[in-house]
Amino acid sequence: MFFLRMIFRSFSRQLKRRLLIAVTVCLSATVSVAMLGVVFDVGDKLNAELSTYGSNITVQPKSDAVISDLYSTDDAAGAAGTSDSSGASATTSDPTSFLKESDAKNIKTIFWAFNITNFAPQLNIHANVEGPDANGHNQTTIPIVGTWFNKTLKLDTGESTVVGVQGMRSWWTVQGAWPKDDSTQAMIGVNLADKLGVRIGDSLVLDKATVSGKNNVQKVTIVGTYDSGDDAANSLYMASSVAQSLADLPDSVDKIEVKALTTPENDLARKAAKNPAALTSEEWETWYCTAYASSIAYQIEEVIPGAVAKQVRQVAALQGDVMNKTRAVMILMTALSLIAAAIAVANLMAASIGERGSELALLKAIGATDGAVSRLMLAETAVISLVGAIIGAGLGSGVAQIVGQVVFGSGITMRPMVFVLVFVLLAITILIASVSSIRSILRLRPAEVLHGR
């Protein structure tokens, strides 16, 4: 009871300094909770944000993957061919190896199915367009991408999911409408539209000589144009079922683009990407049960026969680099706020001890030990700091939500461990800041202080 009475008396006599300590701790707690809250939730937020800029895993037939590795060809060039500086297709070769389109839905059955946010199969072929183009040519060979636009899949689990390029090409500038799946509607790139002299609402007659010797003709209606900002603007996008019918390749695709939320790579992920068989049983379990791009790709290979899944290295590297730098900045801000709090609290406690020297000396003179006086000061500071920390934790949660809404367009999930970690860090900070003050108390000589020396 004696120490409690002393604490309340101290509050009434030196309210200003105690308020300054509380405010200092409150500000530090606010910054720490906000920054660490974002740090612990930034992985999924950044992955979701960066994944809007395209797929991060591509699935190909094994033979195509071997050729890509041997000749270091770009996946994006693929069967649709590359483009020269004029925007024309540099090759008109069609793919010779295929995956089954009906197997694509198996991607949503893997262990990390909920991390697969979107995917779309592609059949990249070429066909001739009948009629003169803008340059007066009577027949022009164009690249065609047969794909899913906004397709609803019924899974074996009874659930349904909507997938397709419409949700994977957020950076495209689209005029008109997206084509409907399993229809004769099509979308044309702005470069190809200029070359052919077509507009929204026009029709194109496509002529395709198939491998079996047939000559198939398909009429499509242009319902939209898109500007991708790259060579993809030289292509015509249409429903995969129509492209398969035109090329006489039922249930065939040569590529599947997959967009997944992944964990940044580390040494284990890089080791597994080179050779999963080289992992120990413990490493294998950790890798397989972590959402690395390489482990998700491996699981996709398990459910799609004859497929090789590869992560898009540029996207994976960008995600990891951005997340690591973002986390480093926020952790640095947290550390700086704690350091600032330690310095401020140490100075305020030193000033408080200087003003209260006579009071503390009197306590020691009437029998209080150095330990008792030190505990009194620590208890007083702890109570003040606890009040500031609680208020700061509430303010920090609010700041974290503001950061989430402004930067990511969604709220931040505040994990309990964030508050536990902040309170532990603040306790250590206050304890360190109190060391010099405790040493000052131990050096107090009651006789000298009470006699004004």
From TrEMBL:
Membrane topology category: Multi-pass membrane protein
Keyword terms of this UniProt record: Cell membrane, Membrane, Transmembrane, Transmembrane helix
GO molecular function: transmembrane transporter activity
Ranges where the ABC3 transporter permease C-terminal domain occurs: 332-444
Residues of the MacB-like periplasmic core domain: 20-260
Principal cellular location given in the protein's record: membrane
Tagged with keyword Membrane: yes
GO CC annotations, alphabetized: plasma membrane
KW Membrane (keyword) present: yes
Similarity comment: Belongs to the ABC-4 integral membrane protein family.
Protein name: FtsX-like permease family protein
Highest taxon listed in the record's lineage: Bacteria
InterPro entries assigned: ABC3_permease_C (IPR003838), MacB_PCD (IPR025857), Macrolide_Exporter_MacB (IPR050250)
Organism field: Bifidobacterium tissieri
Alphabetical list of PANTHER family matching this protein: ABC TRANSPORTER PERMEASE YTRF (PTHR30572:SF4), MEMBRANE COMPONENT OF TRANSPORTER-RELATED (PTHR30572)
Pfam family of the protein (one): MacB_PCD
